[in-house]
Amino acid sequence: MKLSKTLIFSIMSLLVIFSGCHKKNIPEIDERVENLVSQMTLEEKIGQMTQVTIQVVSKTRGSVDQINELDQAKLEEAITKYHVGSILNVWDVGHSADYWPEVITRIQDVATKKTRLGIPIIYGIDAIHGANYTLGATLFPQNIGMAATWNPELIRKSAEITALEVRASGIPWNFNPVLGVGRQSLWPRLWETFGEDVYLTLTMGAEYVKGLQGDDISNPVNVAACAKHYLGYSYPLSGKDRSPAWIPERMLREIFLPSFKAAIDAGVATVMVNSSEINGIPVHSSYYLLTEVLRNELGFKGFVVSDWNDINNLYLREKVAKNQKEAVKMAVMAGVDMSMVPYDFSFYELLLELVKEGAVPEWRIDEAVARILKVKFELGLFENPYPNVELKKQFACDEFREVNLQAARESITLLKNKKQTLPLSKNVKVLVTGPSTNLLSVLNGGWTITWQGNEEALYPKDKKTVLAAIREKIGAQNVLYQPGVDFNEEIDIPAAVQAAKGVDVAIICIGEPTYCETPGNIDDLTMSAAQLKLVEAIEKTGTSVVLVLIEGRPRLINKVVDKTDAIIMAYLPGMEGGQAIADVLFGDVNPSGKLPISYPRYPHSLMTYDYKNSETAGGNDYDAQWSFGFGLSYTEFAYRDLTIDKTEFSQGEDIRVTVNVTNTGDVVGKEVVQLYVSDLVASITPPVKRLKGFRKVELQPGESKTVEFELSDDDLSFIGRDNIRIVEPGEFVVSVADLKAKFELR
Ligand code: BGC
Questions:
Q1: Three-point CA angle 455, 461, 463, nearest 5°
Q2: Per-domain residue ranges for the chain?
Q3: What residues of the chain score a pLDDT lower than 70?
């Protein structure tokens, strides 16, 4: 997984060339910020707080079929008349790594050469699973798949590559990672999260931030990260995107805040606000969350950007402001520093009026502008706002592809393998069927080339669908193909059934079409009727069935599970997903992914693994189809000797836990050693267990390793009755696989 020496060398040389003069030097930057702010007019300052979409400065609104070009007059108007400080996004479709630098250069030319103070623009983009708006970029599994790798080093590496490819496009700011904990299976943005667990999310999220930003965001191989969407966006009660969440303060702090805290501790430069509301209060209007908690408590020092049109939405949608002007005042005074307006200059005009009328104090403007300028200085934009063409040499290079392939392979999770159906021999004859079989778009999901990710014709021709990869693996003559059904409609199930009768194995790829954000809302978590019908029809033939799930959320398949022989979960595995799936199916790769979510069995039983004891009292059960952390391998692992260094501890002492794991099978494999802690009695009803450590280890057949974990007070703490984090003395159980050990905290 390591990058080659040549690559590291070239990256290091770039660091030396470009970073020397603007290494992050906080006192110096603070001075420069203060000095610059003191020279700025009110108009220039408010302009810095304004972010518009690229359509505002373009000849057309942009689309897949149009020539998408900047409009010089509009660009100059935005930057010289309205002093905008930031532009975002894309003309609905990704552009080449050559075109982006041209666009950014033109924008920075205006900002730096045609304005009084020459303040560069900070351009921001959603590079959610790689530089997804630059054609040909390295596109990784979506976050849910990255979480399934349980491999922090790999996510860090993926973020480093993403940063380099985004910067190669001339863009210094990425609106990722999504740090909402994904505990609502219906939510169409579940796949943008790292799953349901607090610890897994905060670990992977912080590594991602470190990978994107490196030690110093002025390095031209790094970009500023944006932790989003602060706070509680991922838990809408109805499961519909941008709809209300009801989250008690304790749960907010227990479940949803820690990942943001970890990102802030890792130095995240920016934060984006939750589009929606918690407990009836839109987060864009919450002084408590945006200032008291985020700034005063968590110590966040970067700047806060609104989400899309969401200041206006305080008036238009949430109805807490009586007009747009009141909405602007509310959001700015709550703590939003930059408005993603995004279609006009209304924010600029209204905020200017508000300050002139004395309704918004100028100190608040100075504060917001200073935060924005500070990030611009830290990024080195004042020294060099222009794209670095040198980076193109590494863009989408083979080594990046290898890392991507590894990520896709390590994400794939084997959920069922009756009588070792998998891996398949390469001498079999197979039917490949189902709607996800022959599309690249479904492997990638939303945020791929376009927002919805559904422009299949624009996908790179050199990447493999599952069908193409299987054909290559065992020879096209051994592969029959029948789509059978579309996502929601039958095409020709009888033809697929007929084909299944003549083969050894039917590989059925089912799942979801691409979607992103609100268009992905659903009313039913069950897999579509057409797809289930295809699976059932093929199961009836008696031919061995292997199900491949390609989906962003766990669509219920309980009806067909028993009769299938093997099931693999591929999530949204990215551009190398087709290859990785074929590698796992035919045994070139031993699967090592583990579920970062509970895969529900029933539509109304959507429990997470860290449920409360009472939830299973009275005959109920955590009856997930597959539980959080689950995933099979082609080998077996045996655990022994779970040991705690002492049985009694005092508060403040660290606790050392060791466990031995052995590969008892015949093939090399990777295992995720998962450490859970249970608090037996607590003043707030304790969850049955919580993940507090994990380690991915590779073991040769017969090899053993002792894995060591260190637990601190923090791992035993919880949010108490006063909504403050506390540690209580008492008995705790640590568990790894089936082993358990007890200790007492005095
Ligand atoms: C999404 C954000 C995204 C922004 C800019 C919004 O609709 O909620 O996640 O960063 O658009 O594209």
A1: 95
A2: 5-31+44-181+191-225+251-269+296-305+329-393, 412-619, 637-745
A3: 1-25, 61-65, 67
